[in-house]
Design a protein that fits this description.
It comes from Streptosporangium saharense. By secondary structure, this protein is of the alpha/beta class. It has one domain: Glucose-6-phosphate isomerase like protein, domain 1 (Rossmann fold). It is about 45% helix and about 15% strand. Helix 2 crosses helix 4, helix 5 crosses helix 10 and helix 7 crosses helix 8. The protein is globular, with a radius of gyration of 17 Å.
Length: about 260
């Protein structure tokens, strides 16, 4: 698939372009980050002031949302060219870790109904090229402060996720990644591929981290701006899993070509 074909696919499936996330939701989350609400920080501790206007300016630059602060309602966007550029930068970073030889890699997602499809392919790719996939703190549990229910860490195909009994669940929580890193101790991973709080906590801990983030999840973009996240890919993180296949293929091809 050419870059132009991929761009058209991203817009057609609303992974980028006119995305489903509303402007109101985006601005609400930018305000929440500016007010340092923990749920929206993803385990990161921003060093800058980052008021709501600063966050909007960053998201316009890094994700392609509408830059006009007067646009308060309705449609918002992700620039598909920024998505592709970031995917290629992510591929280069993954290839760089693989070139070192037998890297220890931790993969996790807070989106089992969407981005898991991407992470499973990356897990296979990494193993095929000599990486060791880590699975620390499997079965570790905690009481989810938002639901009051006990959640635990489970791995499927080398990808860590949060589980609520028999269900894999969506989560922003960073405590899960902190538990993983705590069990690993000084034997930290060489690379983390993740999203939400899994990525934020790893980046805050100083681990080389690449991740995916929606237009209403500004924390990882702030982390990238502050040098804590190596690459953040802007995309709608909850479309039908099969729609991510061309983007995933482009990422895999970028990794392989860079090796």
């Amino acid at each position: 698939m050419t870059r132009e074909d991929l761009r058209a696919h991203l817009v057609r499936t609303r992974i980028a372009g006119d995305v489903d996330t509303s402007r109101e939701n985006n601005l609400d989350h930018y305000r929440a980050l500016a007010e340092r609400e923990p749920y929206h920080l993803f385990g990161l501790r921003p060093e800058g002031n980052w008021d709501e206007r600063d966050v909007l300016e960053l998201m316009a630059k890094s994700a392609g949302v509408v830059a006009d602060p007067g646009h308060r309602f309705g449609q918002d966007t992700i620039d598909p060219d920024l998505t592709i550029d970031a995917v290629e930068a992510m591929g280069d970073t993954i290839a760089g870790a693989l070139r070192v030889g037998s890297p220890r890699v931790l993969i996790a997602t807070g989106h089992p109904t969407g981005l898991l499809a991407v992470h499973l392919v990356l897990a296979r790719l990494l193993e095929e090229h000599g990486a060791e996939l880590l699975s620390p703190a499997e079965g570790w549990s905690y009481r989810n402060p938002r639901t009051g229910r006990k959640n635990e860490i489970r791995y499927v195909g080398g990808v860590g996720m949060a589980a609520d009994r028999g269900n894999l669940i969506h989560t922003h929580d960073s405590v899960l990644m902190r538990a993983m890193l705590a069990e690993l101790g000084e034997e930290r991973p060489d690379l983390v591929i993740a999203d939400h709080g899994w990525a934020g906590a790893a980046g805050e801990a100083g681990v080389l981290t690449v991740g995916f983030a929606d237009s209403n999840d500004p924390a990882l973009f702030v982390g990238e701006a502050e040098g804590k996240i190596a690459v953040t890919v802007p995309l709608d993180d909850n479309v039908l899993p099969r729609h991510y296949a061309p983007l995933t293929n482009h990422l895999v091809e970028r990794v392989v070509r860079a090796l």
